[in-house]
Amino acid sequence: MKHMNSEVKEERTSNKKRMDLFLVPIVLIAAFLNLFKIWTDEYANAYYTAAVKSMLQSFHNFFYASFDPGGYVTIDKPPVVFWIQTISAKIFGFHGWSVILPQALAGIGSVLLLYVLVKRTFGVWAGRFAALAMALTPIVPAVSRTNNIDSMLVFTLLVATWMLFRAVRTAKFGWVLAAFAMIGVAFNMKMLQAYMVLPAFYVFYVVATKITWKKKIAFLTTATALMLAVSVSWAVVVDSTSADKRPYMGSSQTNSVLELAFGYNGINRLTGNTSVTGSSHKQPAQTQQQTASSETKQNSNLSADSSQSSNQRKSSSSQKMRAPGGGNQNGMFNTGNPGPFRLFQEGLSDQISWLLPFVIFSIVGLFAGVKFKGPYTTKQKESLFWLAWLLPVAVFFSIAGFFHQYYLIMLAPPIAAFAGAGAVALWSMYKQHKGWKSWLLPGGILTTAALQVYIMSPYVSSIGVAPIAGVGALGVILALVLAVRKQRKNSLTNYLGAAAMVVLLAMPAYWGMTPIIYGGNSMLPSAGPDSSSGMGGPPSTATNSKQSGFNGMQPPGSSSGNSSSNNQMQPPSGSSNGGQMQMPSGSSNSSQMQMPGGSSNNSQMPNSSSSKSSSLKRKSGGMNAEVNQKLLNYLTKNNTGEKYLFATTDSTSAAPYIIKTGKPVMAMGGFSGSDPILTVSKLKAMIKKGEVKYFYLSGIGKGGQSDVIMWIKENSKEIPSSKWQSTSSSAQQGPSGNGTLYEITLK
Question: CA nearest 631: which of 560, 701, 556?
Fold first, then answer.
């Protein structure tokens, strides 16, 4: 014990003596990728930004993470990240960049934490390369540049990892408790996704800690109990509070946080069971029609350009998405077909898998000669930790029925850690001529370059042939030269090894910059030349940049200004699918996607080869992020003291008005429009109390809201569109453009 403590003190003293100057440019790269131009995203993810606006207005809204200032319904996630965003907005003012800033800083912090975690055991060069690999993993900056949760989640889990490693080094039980408690905090960021690292924590503590089995079991049991207590603490408080004294728990079917955590945001992600109608039904990822989950709805509500991007990508046989072996990839939101090679399919591989072959070779090298019964070195123990993080998460994404591309950030830390530790280990084996192990370095370089060529090949029309051919040629040449020069020890060999690492990181670096170059999608972030579409995959061939992003969609109250596109997105209007989303079927002329709001909005895809739009102020936020000023003026002028400015079916139409005015707008069916919040009797009571009288509707509703919507239409007065509907062809854009405004006054 004394020897262990002395080592810790020596390392701490050594770290204080000097600063690693090589780390400075790595941090600057991470800062550039995560922070540059975030000020151009005015609304970010409008659903979450509206919640921050509401949370700024009262502690009640703040604690429950209310979507609207009236405290009607919450967002569909726990509150911790949004507490942080609200504090940031309180300090710096309410802006898109101020709600993005915490996630951007978390992305930079993750790079630093990975450096610290890897450097201590595997050496300074391993730490540097791991940090650089983390910074350049494309999905990392893509997510960190938004107000989505995942960047903060990964940072929190890396903090927990640092605590766990410290617990093992110091043999102090307090650090074990702190590490597991931090996972509980992460649970209150994104629920069960935080638990994906638990296998790594349990395996590492059991293998690495030199205490008796009784103590291991006792310590882990206690730490797990604390983790569970922290995890459900907020949920228990909310679920124990009378329903009439708090907002409805958004996207749940029983107004329960625990149901949302372990069902809708938990097991259903694996099975693909999602519910938008009040009942659960299985939706296989391979099918062309899928029910929208809460987060799926984020994309379907907001993204006409995304659906058409998928249509146009699939319209050409030369650009069909391929799985290894030539199969077509038809997974929802470009997440591929479940199977062992899913992470190598288009749409996923370019987000996370650039270094996966090198990582596989690194794992072989790091575990070569390890005996099952041990003893294990510190390097082997920590390699086991990263492997126990990597494998379960990779298996989940390989078989899961539903997830979005940006969830893949969960794989970034173990991939980067193995890239850094493996680069040093394979180089050492190469230099020391350790038999077959000396071939792992050139083999890893060759196969990684080959995969990168495969990843880039569908983008030849966007990025050109030169970078693809360059990576392929240089990868092959450097791997072969290193293989030939295995017996030689001189500075040239060192330069060749460094050059190979630069080649392998060049295209991930470019991909990581694409949200800056081409513009990003704050609702469904992804990297690549079509990053603004938020759908991944090869870019579109459309050329009208003015119709890019969500600019081809109309806001509430605006007339359709463009109908030139054949690809339409149509919302549910009473169809029996209960709000199902029709995914592109591969036809470039007739594909449709179901959207909320009741209007058919025509749009064209962004010109992925142009970066002009990325320099403009982005207000779309992936939703209906601008308002119809004429409608707003009418509602404001005719408000006679009602609590809600107006009511609408879901959050799509409500969010921008909340952001702009800070006034309560009721999303009657919650985020997706399917939450069973209202009944006709409840709505009558609200109207009689003078809480709401205007209703903007563009459909008959979904799920449990159908009866409410029908009652509104049967008992209301329709407001002539000339009084509130914008007719300007330059009207601000967004979905839900062909709805109807109703007024109800009950005595």
Answer: 556
Q: What is the predicted pLDDT for the residue at 418?
A: 98
Residue 661, judged by CB atoms within 10 A of its CB (0-12, 13-18, 19+), counts as: middle
Both tokens of residue 139?
């999905």
From first CA to last CA, the distance across the chain in angstroms is 78
Q: CB–CB of 114/140 below 8 Å?
A: no
Specify the pLDDT at position 409. Answer: 97
Predicted pLDDT at 746: 82
Contact between 549 and 717 under an 8 Å Cβ cutoff? The reply is no
Give phi and psi for 569, each to the nearest 5.
Answer: -115, 115
Are 647 and 668 in contact by the 8 Å Cβ rule? The answer is yes
How many angstroms separate the CA atoms of 100 and 143, rounded?
A: 10
**Separation CA 638–CA 169 (nearest Å):** 67
User: Burial code of 597-626, b = ≥16 C-beta within 10 A, e = fewer?
Assistant: bbbbbbbbbbbbbebebbeeebbbbbbbbb
- Does the pLDDT value for residue 134 go beyond 50? yes
CA distance 697 to 626: 17
pLDDT of residue 40: 92
Burial classification of residue 567, based on how many CB atoms lie within 10 Å of its CB (0-12 exposed, 13-18 middle, 19 or more buried): buried
Q: Which residue is it, tokens 């008796």? A: 212
CA proximity to 295, closest of 524, 105, 601, 492: 524
Beta strand 694-697 pairing with 327-328:
unpaired
Q: How sure is the predictor about 581, in pLDDT bands with cuts at 50, 70 and 90?
A: very low
Distance CA 99, CA 79 (A): 14
**Predicted pLDDT at 652:** 87
**pTM reported for the whole predicted model:** 0.83
- Determine if the peptide bond prior to 735 is cis (ω within 30°): no
- pLDDT over threshold 90, residue 26: yes
- Better-scored residue on pLDDT, 120 or 617: 120
Q: Give me the pLDDT at residue 16, please.
A: 53
CB atoms near residue 160 (< 10 Å): 23
When mean pLDDT is compared across 403-412, 485-494, 615-624, the lowest value belongs to 615-624
Element spanning 577, H or E: none
